[in-house]
Structure formats: structure tokens, C-alpha cells
Amino acid sequence: MHVVVNAATSADGKLSSRRREQIAISGEADFERVDRLRAYSDAVVVGVGTVLADDPHLTVKDESLCDERLERGEPKQPARVVVDSKGRTPTDAAVLDDAATTYVCLSEAAPVGSRMDLVDHAELVTAGNDRVDLLRAFAALEEQGLERIMVEGGGELIFSLFEAGLVDELRLFVGPKVIGGRDAPTLADGEGFVEEFPLLHLEDLERLDDGALLRWTVED
Ligand SMILES: NC(=O)C1=CN([C@@H]2O[C@H](COP(=O)(O)OP(=O)(O)OC[C@H]3O[C@@H](n4cnc5c(N)ncnc54)[C@H](OP(=O)(O)O)[C@@H]3O)[C@@H](O)[C@H]2O)C=CC1
Ligand SMILES: Nc1nc(O)c(N)c(N[C@@H]2O[C@H](COP(=O)(O)O)[C@@H](O)[C@H]2O)n1
């Protein structure tokens, strides 16, 4: 399995504002790059915080990229994955529509009623007691043949993936906006590291739109 975290931050490192509403940080060229990265992924992963905040669809938008997937013998759309301990994903969420297969990764703490609602819309994976055990959940996804994983956020999930040692690459678009706010989400929130900080190796740096695209690999 190869896990790429892809996100866009403002120049001051925020994923969105303190209102946690979706903000277009990427410009046209970066959104096209993100669409291509989705098209070359087996699954696109987000945390339930992003589903509740953004109601994302997480599909490949460019039909010609979808056609190329079909020509390669892949499903028209990559799978979508929501990491959601307690089954809070609303049944009318865009990510649960029939455009692609969706997996919802739950913990044992997810109420039976939520499971019964979600099972009509998604494949359910259970891993962990109170919170989703990401190592086990990602192993279960790999067993389903999902090898090329793209994680789109948000900050809580990205931190946990670094903490679990699951991230192979970080692709970050830093855009020409200042958002500010001590309560605005950043690339990696959660508890934060105080030692044994994950170290990155810069592979590429490119000017894109009015920002910069950085590609790092994660050192072992
Ligand atoms: N600019 C960009 O590129 C992007 C921006 N965003 C922005 O980020 C914000 C959302 O981020 P955020 O609030 O951090 O939410 P996340 O999408 O990171 O989801 C976090 C939630 O996932 C659930 N979860 C389950 N298991 C785990 C685990 N092991 N580790 C971490 N989380 C787990 C938790 O909820 P529970 O306990 O209920 O399961 C947790 O609160 C929004 O404002 C959105 O607009 C999001 C994506 C990309
Ligand atoms: N790459 C990128 N740049 C931005 O500026 C963004 N705001 C995001 N957000 C992510 O994209 C998801 C929306 O996906 P759909 O267009 O609905 O398919 C959103 O939920 C974030 O994960 N990404």
C-alpha cells in the first residue's frame, strides 16, 4: 500500500477558517492536479469531520480521466473512504451516493442504529474500540485490493496517520491566502508531536497558480 496525503493550506498553514467551511485555497491548475491524483488512486480517504464540514463528493471530475480508468480496467471512479468512529456520516451525504463504492470505517463504539442506516449505502469496516484503529482499517482496505491511497484530510485524520506511521508521501499546495485564527484547522492537528517528529525529504518544489506545490516523502 502507498499512502499519499494531499491537501491545500493557506500561506499561514490553515486548511480552512475557524468556521470550518470549505475554502478554495487551490487555483484552477491545482484542482486539475488533484483530479489527476484522484484518477490514479484506488481510494480517496477523508475523516468524518471533513464530511460534516464540506459534504465532499470525492469523485474524479474530468470524464476523460474516468474513461482512461475504464481503459486501464479500473472502476470508473476510485473508492471513497470515510473514517468515522461513531457512524456520524449522514445517509444523504454526497460521499454515499452511487457514483462510486464507499467504505465507512467505524469503531466498536458506533451505535447499531447508525450501522443499520449506513449499511444500505456503504461497505462497513470495523476496527478499534472507541476510535478507528487506522492500522487495522487500512489493512482491511488493502485486503479489498485498495493499494494506492490518497488522503484529502482533514487535520485530525492527517495527524493520526502520521502518528500511526502510515504516510508515505505528502503533497501540499500552499496557496496565496492568509486565513489566520488559533482555532482554524491546520494540516496536522490532533495532540501534536512533542518528540519523534516525523521527518520529511523534499522531492519536488513547483510554482503553481500563485502558490507552491511541495512534494515530500516521509523518512523511515
Ligand atoms: N484545504 C484542504 O485541503 C482541506 C481542508 N479540509 C478542512 O478541514 C476541516 C475538517 O478537518 P477536521 O475537523 O480535522 O476533520 P477530519 O476530516 O480530520 O475528521 C476528524 C474526525 O475523524 C474521526 N476519526 C475517527 N478515527 C480517527 C482517528 N484514528 N484519528 C483521527 N480522527 C479519527 C473523528 O471523529 P469521530 O471520533 O466521531 O470518529 C475525528 O473528529 C474542514 O474545515 C475542512 O474544510 C479538509 C480536507 C482538505
Ligand atoms: N486540494 C484542495 N484544495 C482546496 O482549496 C480545497 N478546499 C480542498 N478541499 C478538499 O476537497 C474536497 C472537496 O471535494 P469535491 O470537490 O466535493 O469532490 C473537500 O472536502 C476537501 O477534502 N482540496
Automatic annotation (TrEMBL):
Q: Under which main EC class is this enzyme filed?
A: oxidoreductase
Q: Where is the Bacterial bifunctional deaminase-reductase C-terminal domain?
A: 2-212
Gene3D superfamilies documented for this protein? Dihydrofolate Reductase, subunit A
Pfam entry (one): RibD_C
Q: In which pathway does it act?
A: Cofactor biosynthesis; riboflavin biosynthesis
Recite the UniProt keywords alphabetically.
NADP, Oxidoreductase, Plasmid, Riboflavin biosynthesis
Q: Report the domain of life of the source organism.
A: Archaea
Please provide, alphabetically and separated by semicolons, the GO molecular function terms listed in this UniProt record: 5-amino-6-(5-phosphoribosylamino)uracil reductase activity; NADP binding
Which reaction equations make up its catalytic activity? 2,5-diamino-6-(1-D-ribitylamino)pyrimidin-4(3H)-one 5'-phosphate + NAD(+) = 2,5-diamino-6-(1-D-ribosylamino)pyrimidin-4(3H)-one 5'-phosphate + NADH + H(+); 2,5-diamino-6-(1-D-ribitylamino)pyrimidin-4(3H)-one 5'-phosphate + NADP(+) = 2,5-diamino-6-(1-D-ribosylamino)pyrimidin-4(3H)-one 5'-phosphate + NADPH + H(+)
Where does the record place a coiled coil? Answer: none
For this protein, the record's InterPro entries field holds:
DHFR-like_dom_sf (IPR024072), Rib_reduct_arc (IPR006401), RibD_C (IPR011549), RibDG_C (IPR002734), Riboflavin_Biosynth_HTPR (IPR050765)
The answer to whether keyword Oxidoreductase applies is yes
EC number(s)? Answer: 1.1.1.302
Q: Name one GO biological process term.
A: riboflavin biosynthetic process
| Subunit structure, as described in the record | Homodimer.
Which NCBIfam families does this entry report, sorted A to Z? rib_reduct_arch, ribD_Cterm
Please report which protein family the annotation says this sequence is part of: Belongs to the HTP reductase family.
Q: What PANTHER family does UniProt report for this protein, alphabetically?
A: 2,5-DIAMINO-6-RIBOSYLAMINO-4(3H)-PYRIMIDINONE 5'-PHOSPHATE REDUCTASE (PTHR38011:SF7), DIHYDROFOLATE REDUCTASE FAMILY PROTEIN (AFU_ORTHOLOGUE AFUA_8G06820) (PTHR38011)
**Protein name per the record:** 2,5-diamino-6-(ribosylamino)-4(3H)-pyrimidinone 5'-phosphate reductase
Q: What lineage, starting at the top, does this entry show?
A: Archaea, Methanobacteriati, Methanobacteriota, Stenosarchaea group, Halobacteria
